[in-house]
């Protein structure tokens, strides 16, 4: 049985913002499904303020048919400040109510949007407080055609240490890649 709170539709009082969204290019027919279809970096943890713009962008970039409307969004409860059940989305062509479901068991950083025909889009959600450079890198990696990382792995990469030890490890990895790609590293003595 539905309670009054669950039947109530939440309405955003602000205009939908343009989402910071990167989507993976459409895969070739018959390609295996990857863990993520792209990444999104919301400006806050307020779902009422952030989700309308994302939903409209996904509908605009979705399949070119009558089923391109988003009907349902699944989110991790602890990633957000509020938990409305139904959200009215005012688009340029229509107004829709989108069902929102909140889960404690969904992986951190994952948002799943489901189109009216059942197709889905799995997005890595970069935490809103992430620094600009790290967030952009996370979005690009989530949307990269060969990315097979899961949201937890991407979150770990965003929060990886950035001190001198991390820099040395990154440089070592870069040198190893250079060598494995046929590059040549000179061994120069450093004067102190």
What would you say this structure looks like, in words?
- The chain has one domain.
- The protein is globular, with a radius of gyration of 20 Å.
- The N and C termini lie far apart (76 Å).
- Helix 3 packs antiparallel against helix 4.
- With 192 residues, it is of the alpha/beta class.
- Strand 5 and strand 6 form a beta hairpin.
- It is built from five helices and eight strands.
- The protein has an eight-stranded mixed beta sheet with strand order 1-5-6-4-7-8-3-2.
Question: Topology, pairings included?
Answer:
Blueprint: H1 4-7, E1 10-11, E2 21-23, E3 38-40, H2 47-61, E4 70-76, E5 86-90, E6 95-103, E7 110-115, E8 120-125, H3 132-143, H4 151-158, H5 164-180
Parallel strand pairs: 1-5, 3-8, 4-6
Antiparallel strand pairs: 2-3, 4-7, 5-6, 7-8
Helix pairs in contact: 3-4
How many beta-strand segments?
8
Tell me the overall shape.
globular
What is the beta-strand fraction? 15-25%
Structural class computed from helices and strand pairing: alpha/beta
Helix content: 25-40%
Termini Cα gap: 76 Å
Low-pLDDT segments, ≥5 res = 1-6, 163-192
Report the C-alpha radius of gyration, rounded. 20 Å
Q: What do the pLDDT scores average to?
A: 79
Question: Could you state the order of secondary-structure elements as H and E?
Answer: HEEEHEEEEEHHH
Number of domains: 1
Largest sheet: 8 strands, mixed
Strand order of the largest sheet: 1-5-6-4-7-8-3-2
How many H/I helices?
A: 5
Short description:
With 192 residues, the chain is of the alpha/beta class. The chain has helices at 4-7, 47-61, 132-143, 151-158, 164-180; strands at 10-11, 21-23, 38-40, 70-76, 86-90, 95-103, 110-115, 120-125.
């Amino acid at each position: 049985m539905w309670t009054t709170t669950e039947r109530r539709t939440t309405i955003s009082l602000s205009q939908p913002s343009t989402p910071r969204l990167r989507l993976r290019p459409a895969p070739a027919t018959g390609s295996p499904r990857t863990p993520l279809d792209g990444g999104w970096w919301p400006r806050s943890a307020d779902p009422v303020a952030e989700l309308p713009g994302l939903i409209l962008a996904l509908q605009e970039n979705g399949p070119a048919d009558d089923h391109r409307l988003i009907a349902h969004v699944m989110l991790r409860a602890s990633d957000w400040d509020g938990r409305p059940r139904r959200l009215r989305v005012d688009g340029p062509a229509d107004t829709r109510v989108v069902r929102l479901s909140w889960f404690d068991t969904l992986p951190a950083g994952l948002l799943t949007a489901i189109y009216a025909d059942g197709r889905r889009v799995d997005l890595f959600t970069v935490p809103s407080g992430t620094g600009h450079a790290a967030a952009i890198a996370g979005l690009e990696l989530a949307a990269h055609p060969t990315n097979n990382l899961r949201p937890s792995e991407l979150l770990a990469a965003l929060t990886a240490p950035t001190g001198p030890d991390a820099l040395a490890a990154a440089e070592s990895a870069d040198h190893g890649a250079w060598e494995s790609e046929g590059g040549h590293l000179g061994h120069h003595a450093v004067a102190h």
